[in-house]
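User: I'm writing a short methods note and want a consistent example. For inner membrane transport protein yajr, I'll paste the sequence; you return only the structure tokens, no commentary, since I'll be parsing the reply automatically.
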Amino acid sequence: MVAFGKKLRQNQIEEWQRYYINYKLLKKKVNRYSQQIQVGAENQQNVLKDFSIMLDNQIERIVMFMLEQKGLLASRLSILGEQHGAVLEQSDESKISELREAYRAVGQDLLRLLFFVEINAMGLRKILKKFDKRFGHRFTDYYVKTRANHPYSQLRQVFKHVGVGAVVGAISRHLADLQDQEGNHISIYDQPALSHPDPVIDSIKAAVNRLSNSTNFLEFLGKHAFTFQDESPTPSEDHLAEQRYHFMSLLLNLVNTFLYMVNTYIIVPTADNYSRHLGAAATVCGVIIGSMAVAQVFSSVYFSAWSNRSYLRPLVFSSVVLLIGNILYALAYDLNSIPVLLIGRLFCGLGSARAVNRRYISDCVPLKLRLKASAGFVSASALGMACGPALACLFQTNFKIYKLTFNQDTLPGWVMALSWLVYLLWLWISFREPPRENNKLVPQESYTGLPVQDAVEIDFTQPLLLNSEAKFQDNNVDQEFDDGEENYDESHKPVTSIVSAYRLLTPSVKVQLFVYFMLKYAMEILVAESSVVTGHYFIWSTTSVAVFLACLGLTVLPVNVIVGNYISNMFEERQVLLASEIMVLIGILLSFQVLIPYTVPQYVSAALVTFVSAEVLEGVNLSLLSRVISSRLSRGTYNGGLLSTEAGTLARVIADGTISLSGYLGESRLLNATLVPSLFICLSSIIATCFTYNSLY
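Assistant:
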């Protein structure tokens, strides 16, 4: 890959060249400002003011040209519309074909305009990021806050697609009319299913989605999965993913995700019972549940590193370890041993291959299928979370085979051991190890060899930055490329340690990771102590607890449907983020047992508010995190997915430890004792979000 400045020159549409962002000038200005500040010739305040004016002028030129081009497209459509009725009345097939091609030509020109807007938006993001990096100043926060929130904002025009929908609608409607051979004049607005798909319309929709980051259910779930990919995968990278893709392997990857989530939650309704049978306090269930999360803190790292070399071997290892762990968990009952029980759960945590699951989707699924695969990852997790407790309520039996006991405490272990054995055999037979290129991507070459406008006309759904090369070879083209910060090897290479990864985290990213920690902590407190709390206050049976937890798990997908299809299109993600945090806080406050008798309606309603709000918060939080995190954390062992997994796992460990420690106060005080830390952490996250709110754009 090469520096962005060279890419910009390579991909400019020649006749529009003077309207592009002047990235070279802006970059030289940043370098000059840096030198002037170092020698004391300029102060930072004047630099910020001067650079802001320069950016304003650049954006205004882009926006004015964009509006002018949209006007020309609208004029062409208006002229074609006047011809439309007459051509249909004549029923001349040749004229209909000419008119159809004329509409498609307008669509192709709209694609060129969208390409123009997106590459300028990319340049703007790059130069803002470079300014922040050079001066150690959150100039992006200031600039976005003052420009994007202004009623006459031109910055928003760069990132939005105002007016494009009207052009696309006109082209779609007229193309559908022209392709209608039966005289059926039903409008596509009345029956969208009758509209005739056209490649140019599909390409425009793909371009608009990429430009605007518009959110639908699949995109929301895909971001929820937090699978990383660089800003614009090159054609060679996507071709490599095509070669690696194997449907059965992807299915096995998702089944692993599902089974692991079942394994995590299947013991929750009976963990307190199990600990009592082994002579421990009911609140030891926190340690039993949390021991799996403790091991996952470490397993996430080595599985992430292992996935650099293989996918099959870590999945096989995961299945074997989980098989052993579940057998030990079940045997602990007859051995009457808490240590064996905990070792079994530790083994289960050591088999957590979620880092491999995410990595496989990022590396081995083509771009066109990656969103659906990511949504499948989240759906499998949600389904496993609901099925785990639901299965537990089916195990209300008690019998022995030889000297092995099978009851509600041991059956979760035996059933999961059998499940992992069947999965291991299926994995060994059906999984196909993706081909490797010596752990490196194929060097990038020109995709088409055509000018960018011709390449766009061929297929706009291809990555925007065409004609990229493996290395920048001409060292004398421009002095600007001597700065290695824009070079791929410097600014995009993966980090090599957790410390390096932490240093790349901006305040906004750190706050989002803390928000993720908070929501996982609140959810774990709610779920892990549910059997003890409901048993103490309401004398619920294991079946009642299992049904309650299963119902909570079943809310995940419907909530994501509502947020993905409606809420995220009505409000900014940062608004949804803050509102969700406040709702989690309200749920925690409603959960406290005060003076009045604690009732089932109070507990269930508070739990529902907390859990649903946390689910909404998780999706929006990871979506924002995927946009603001450094591109260097998009691949490698210490990637953003690993950081978020570690933050969530650490939250679960601390939450489960809190439950066990609070157990020393007695079951009557357990609820309030565990809710106090949740309340404090939630308040802290809300305050931190308010401080970084304007940078979440």
